[in-house]
Structures are given as C-alpha cells and as structure tokens.
Amino acid sequence: MKKQTQSIRIQTKRSQYREHSTPLFLTSSFCFEDAEQGKALFDETLEGNIYSRFSNPSVQEFVDKVCMLENCEEGLATATGMAAVFAGFAAHLKSGDHVVSSRALFGSAHQILTQILSKWGVTHTYLDATAPESEWEAAVQPNTRMIYLETPSNPGLELVDMAMVGRIAKKHNLIYYVDNCFATPIIHTPTDYGANLIVHSATKFMDGQGRVLGGVITGTKELIAPVRFFCRHTGPSMSPFNAWVLSKSLETLEIRMQRHCENAIKLAKALEKMEGVINVKYPHLPSHPQYELAKKQMKAGGAIVTFELEGGFERVTRFTQKLKIVSLSSNLGDSRTIITNPNTTTHSKLPKEDKVKLGITEGLIRLSVGLEDVSDLIADFKQAAKKSM
Ligand SMILES: *Cc1c(COP(=O)(O)O)cnc(C)c1O
Known about the structure:
Blueprint: H1 3-9, H2 35-42, H3 57-70, E1 74-78, H4 81-92, E2 98-102, H5 107-116, E3 123-127, H6 133-139, E4 144-150, H7 162-171, E5 175-179, H8 184-187, E6 197-201, E7 215-219, H9 221-234, H10 240-250, H11 253-271, E8 277-281, H12 291-297, E9 304-309, H13 312-322, E10 327-328, E11 338-340, H14 352-357, E12 364-368, H15 374-387
Parallel strand pairs: 2-3, 2-4, 4-5, 5-6, 10-11
Antiparallel strand pairs: 1-7, 6-7, 8-9, 9-12, 11-12
Helix pairs in contact: 3-10, 4-9, 11-15, 13-15
The structure holds pyridoxal-5'-phosphate.
Keywords: Amino-acid biosynthesis, Aminotransferase, Methionine biosynthesis, Pyridoxal phosphate, Transferase
EC number: 2.5.1.-
Pathway: Amino-acid biosynthesis; L-methionine biosynthesis via de novo pathway; L-homocysteine from O-succinyl-L-homoserine: step 1/1
C-alpha cells in the first residue's frame, strides 16, 4: 500500500463498539486480567500495555504511522520535539564521547550540545552545512560516536548532502541522527541515505495546525531500545490526547505538504519582484546556491522561505504592521502563514559572529508558508512591501 493510504488506514484495532474513527485511550494505566498476567507483563514474557508512561494505544498508533513514513522499524513519542532530540542523545552518549554536528541547529539543540552534554563530558565539533566531504571526514575523531544534522537549516535554508554524510557515518560506524522536522518525510526520508535515527518536532508540520506539542524519534530496533529504556524511566512521554490529535493530522500530512510547497514556491517567486525585498531564498529556486542538491535530495522545496527587507529592523517593524493576513509569531509549520524576524526572536541569543556565519541579518524574515489561497498571500505581502518603503 502507498504511504498516503497507510497514513489513513493504520489504526488501533477496532473495539467491541465498532467505532469508525480511531478512539482516544485517555487512561494512565491498564488493568490486569489476573495476577499472573500482571506478573508476565512486568517480567516481559508478555507484551502489552501497563502504564501510559511506558506505552499507550493512541500513542502507539501515532508512532506506527511515523515509522511507516520514515521507513523505520521502531519509534517512541515524547511530549515535545526537544524531549525526543534529547532522548536520542542521552540514550546513546556517555562521558568521553564526541559528536560531529552541523552548525545551524535549532536553538535548543545547540544549547543541549554546548551547555548540557558538555557538563557530562560529551564534546562536539560543528561544521558548516555546506562543508565539503573532506571537512566532515577530518572532524571524525577516535571517540566520535554520532553525527547529528538538520537539513534544510533554520533559518539559513542551507542543505546538508545527506548521501555524503551517510558515506562517512558508514565508514566510521557512527550513529547517523537527523532532525527531519523542516522537510518532513513527505519531502525526504533520511534512511534512504543511511541515517539510522530520525527525530521530529511533531509540533510543526505533523500537527500542522498549531495546536499541540509533540516529538517522535524513530530508527532501527537496535538504536530505539536504549531510547525506550531512557524514556520509560525518565518520563518524557507523549500525552494520549496529543497523540490522538497528531495521528489524525498525519492523515493529511501529504496533501498539506503538497499545498504548502506549491504556495511557497509561488510566493517566493512573487517576493523576488517586490520593492525593497532582497535575497529571497528557497531550496527549489534556481537562485539557491545548492539548487542542484535541492533538486536531487528534496521532492519539493518545503514550506519555509527567507528573504531580507532593505532598511533593517525599522523596516521590519513597519512591514509587519502593514500585513493584514499574515501572523507575526515564532512558530512554523502551521496552516496559517507566519513570519518571524530571527535576529530579534528565535536566534536573538546567538553571539554576533555566529549570526554573521548563519546569515542572520537585521532585516532577515523567515516565512512559514501556510495553506491560505496564495493569491491573497501575494497581495498581502505586495501591499505591505509598498506601504513600508
Ligand atoms: C521546533 C523544532 C524543534 C523543537 O521542537 P519542540 O516541539 O518545540 O520541542 C526541534 N527541531 C526543529 C528543527 C524545530 O523546528
């Protein structure tokens, strides 16, 4: 069956009530039919639900769908994306280990590597997303255990060549850990390039409607086992309610992503022609510096577009005041189009030299293109560009 069909048809086994839509198992624990069954479940001679910190049918349905979408054997859902990112690190790294990572990371992933794992003796080396194979190779040390990356990056929209990194991970037998939140499995599946641990903030496109927080990590059976142990005993579990919402959302992920991407490329092309708008960046625009790789690696360009407003923060302020439809928020991956000024919000705490390296200028705008009619979006941006000159 095709993935779109499975996204809809993977469902918790129908109960005696013959429900059509999937039920919500909002329960903290599960009953034992007898003392023997309780004993067997705890000594793991019998598989089944015990307590929702460990497992829950609504959560499992969501995980099963993500495993299917990402071509992974097993997975685990968590309360937020960051809980999943952290679980992947914490379950696999010990004092003395080293991580090779792309530099342009989601802010909190950067804080985990630099402020938390460093306290426990885990070191890391950052590389530019666009660094050549020789640099990735040279960054690997005898104690390197993992390669971690995001592609496309936030907010620079730089791509990492996942096949190239896959060769290095394989050669040195490293855990190849990818945050696939920006692209979603609809645009690329990192396991095609040898990645064996994939993480998502389900808060973004998976929910897609800005309602719930969630995270999910999937991978090989072997790599998920320690993550399961870590989560079972430290408790970052996803709420069954959020899992139920997210599982429903996955039914429409493919069609939503298609529309997000169609809108994004049309809007990116229109922005290139607007007054005072410069440096429009989108992976599937020929002007993107890695256009060839983007065409090869990404089925579509994604929902994120960046551009710069001439006139710095003052212009950003005037521009955002003039917008009538588009929201000003720090989130992304919503049916509503959102703009963010990374320099003063999501990336404000970065040192100046890092901002320069990542292309975060005062006038930079990150745009998460939603599902509105694109002609309304283009008109809104056009009038705001003109009136804010
Ligand atoms: C939002 C985001 C996260 C963190 O997810 P939360 O659900 O907010 O904890 C991690 N990685 C990327 C790329 C994100 O965009």
